[in-house]
């Protein structure tokens, strides 16, 4: 009869689970070589958050240069990485917060505030990278920002959503803790006489 929503006690692990998903997507973005790739054959350009690689049309070997030699490359990597580290800390805090029987709702709201900081750092890194990359790195052929860059944005979107839920969760304190009796709705007034 009672539907499990985000505010119910049984579903309290959804938010830490979503944060775990954001961490996985962040790891893919940090490790992936698909931040920028050639759009079609011949595939002559490939870049990650850390380096940019090119090769000739007939060459099989990639020639790579580190983006850490550029100030904007260090800034993009540092801001995204700082956001990721704070995200891991928020995940650990969320697991601790939801593990104890008596939730500290101000503590939960603090996690939401930290998640907004994570989103700000990640957005800064995700905006610096394409703007400065296209300005300062010579591009060969048709290129696109690809799957690893998309995982970075997906992680950020999940973090923003979780931040709102963590900040709003204390408004549903009684529902989460199970202090409210469930309300049952009956379809016909005939059944109401059996309640007395």
UniProtKB/TrEMBL annotation:
Annotated keywords: Apoptosis, Cell adhesion, Cell junction, Cell membrane, Cytoplasm, Membrane, Transmembrane, Transmembrane helix
A biological-process GO annotation: cell-cell adhesion
Keyword check for Cytoplasm: yes
InterPro entries: P53_induced, PMP22/EMP/MP20/Claudin
Keyword Glycosyltransferase: no
PANTHER family in alphabetical order: P53 APOPTOSIS EFFECTOR RELATED TO PMP-22, P53-INDUCED PROTEIN RELATED
Family: Belongs to the TMEM47 family.
Stated name of the protein: p53 apoptosis effector related to PMP-22
